[in-house]
Amino acid sequence: ARDIIPKARLIVDSNQVCHYFRLTPDNRLLFGGRARFAPSDPTSDKKSGAVLFREMCEIFPQLSRTKVEYVWGGSVGFAMDRIVHAGQTEDGVYYSMGYAGHGVQMATHMGQVMAEVMDGHPEVSPVRDIAPPRIPLYNGTAWFLPFAGAYYKTLDRIR
Question: pTM to 2 decimals?
Answer without folding.
Answer: 0.65
